[in-house]
Amino acid sequence: MHKVPHSALFALPIFAAFSASAEPVQSDMLSSVGNFLASLTAEQKSKASFGFDDAERKNWHFIPRVRQGLTMKEMTHEQRLLAHALFASGMSSRGYGKAVSIMSLEAILAEMEKGQSGKAVRDSENYFFSIFGTPSADKPWGWRMEGHHLSFNFTCTGKEATVTPSFMGTNPGEVREGPRKGIRVLGQEEDFGRELVKSLSAEQRTKAVINSTTPKDVVNDPARLDLTAPEGLPYSEFNPAQRQLAERLVREYLGRHRPEVEAMEWDRIRSSELAGAAFAWAGGMQPGEPHYYRFQGKNFVVEFDNTQNGANHPHAVWRDRNRDFGVDPLKAHYDKAHKN
C-alpha cells in the first residue's frame, strides 16, 4: 500500500486552484475534504490517505470486515461532524438520511444478536473515511465512505464526479419491534420493484421472471469486475405506465446522490441506454417472500436482493461498467493530458 505524505494532502493550493467554472459538486467536495483533513492529526491523516492508484481504492465491500482508512470511532466529536459534512457533500438529503439511518441500525442489530456467538461487533461509528490521491481542482482524486451495509465511492476528475459503486443494505430490512417498529429504510427500493413486476401482464412476466428462486445476494457484487448483461423483459416492451414505474425505480437509486449528479446520470441513461434496458425478477412477488430484481442497460445496473434472514435483509446496489471508480471520465482526462 502506497501512502501519500500527509503534508501533500492538505496544501493551500487545494483551495486556490479551484476555478469558478468547475462543477459545484466537486467544488463542495473539495472544500469539505479540505476542512476534514485540516482537522486531523498527522497520524490520522496518514491513516486516512492513500495514493490515487493504490489498490485499496477499488477494494470496496459492504460486509462487516477489517478495513483500511480512518474510522469515525477514532475521531473527535468535531472531526466526526466534518466527516459527516464531507459525506453530505456527495449525497442528496434523502440519500444522506437513508445512510445515517442504516448506520443507526447497527444498535438494533447488536440488540437482536445479543448473546449469539460468532457474530460481528456492531458499532454505528465503525465507518471508514479514505482519501485517494491529493484533492485537486484539475487532477484526479477520490474518496470513500464505507462500513457495514454502506459503500460510497467518489471519483473527481476536474470535469465531473462519478459516484459508483453505490451500495446500501439494511438488517433488519423492517424493524419489527421496539420504539422504531415499522422503519424500512430501503422500503421504496423494494416496493417500487414489486409494483413494477406486478404491473406486468402474464405474457410479459414469462420474459421478466428469470427464476422462481433467488440468488443468494446481489449478482453484481464487489468480486464481479465484468458486470452482468441485461436480461428479462426489454424496456421497449413496457407500456407507458410501466415505463414510468421503471424510470421511477432507476431514479430512486440515482437520487441517493446530489440532484446535479442525479440529473446528469439520468440524462445519460435516458438518452443512450434506456431503450436497450431490461427488467429481470426472481423469487416471490408478495411481501415477505424472498425476491430479487435487476434493471439494467448496456452499462448501468440497479439491483436489489432480499433473501437473507427470512427476506428481511435487503441489499441494493447501483453500478456502471463505464463509470465505476471514474473509468470513462478518467480515460477522457488522461487522453486530453496526453494530447496536450
Largest sheet: 13 strands, mixed
Number of spatially distinct domains: 2
Helix content: 25-40%
Tally of helical runs = 12
List keywords for this structure.
340 residues; alpha+beta; 2 domains; 13-stranded mixed β-sheet; disordered N terminus
Would you give an account of this structure?
The protein has 340 residues and is of the alpha+beta class. The radius of gyration is 20 Å and the shape is globular. 38% of the residues lie in helices and 18% in strands. The chain has 2 domains: 6-164 and 328-339, no CATH class; 187-322, no CATH class. A hairpin with a 3-residue loop joins strand 11 and strand 12 (300-306). It has helices spanning 6-9, 13-16, 24-38, 42-48, 77-89, 93-112, 187-198, 202-208, 240-254, 259-272, 308-311, 327-339, and strands at 49-50, 70-71, 128-132, 141-147, 150-156, 161-162, 166-169, 209-211, 233-234, 278-283, 291-296, 300-306, 314-320. Strands 1, 2, 3, 4, 5, 6, 7, 8, 9, 10, 11, 12 and 13 form a 13-stranded mixed sheet that branches. Residues 1-22 have low confidence and may be disordered.
